[in-house]
Amino acid sequence: MSCGTGQCGPSRGGSGSGCVRDTLRKIIEAQNKIVSPAAVNCPTSCENAIDELLSPSSRNNRPRYTTIPVTLINGCGKPFIGSGIVNRAPNGERRDYFDCVESPVFKVRGFTNRSETCVSLELLIPVHHHRDGDQQEHQVTDCGTTTCDFFKHPIHNFKSTGICINVDVNCFCGITCLDPITPIPL
How far apart are CA 59 and CA 62, in angstroms? Predict the structure, then answer.
């Protein structure tokens, strides 16, 4: 996988993208360690999210969350928008047709094939509360130039989509971590 030269700015090589790769690696390690929490202390948003993920709840000393959602920033300073096709209904059953899903929010699934630069990301879609109190997944339909353009309403949680994409971390110059969550399953 390569970023190519058609993107904003120069292609990011190995040394320039280490902070994104290292942060993704830490998130993966934290998500895999939630059975036996360990303390992490650092003032960055991602390190704070990792620390919160690894902290047990006051009940049963079991993890409260399973995921640190992330957004990635490309060389232009714009959010990376992942997309994929799915034929599942919101209840998880197969449909007779396919829907397109786009989102700038991901769950880091892991590095692929022992690679140092290729990572698997699962698209997460927002879940909103409506006036009647019901949760409803929100399909992102209007692309924007910032992450906030995608989510015009308050987000209660995120839902797993089962859509995973592999990306080259050398293509990104920034990462933002959201507070830990447990995504609603398919």
Answer: 7
- Residue 186 falls within a domain, yes or no? no
Q: Is residue 156 part of a domain?
A: yes
- Domain membership of residue 185 (yes or no) is no
DSSP 171: G
At 47, phi and psi to the nearest 5?
Answer: -65, -40
List of residues 6+ apart from 184 with CB closer than 8 A? 127, 135, 137, 157, 158, 159, 160
| Beta-strand relationship, 157-168 and 135-137 | unpaired
pLDDT of 10 over the 90 cut: no
Domain count, the chain: 1
pLDDT at position 123: 96
Strand, helix or coil for residue 170: helix
Per the structure, the complete domain to which residue 51 belongs is given by 15-177
Residue 66 covered by a domain: yes
What secondary structure letter does DSSP report for 57? P
Region 159-185: mean pLDDT is: 92
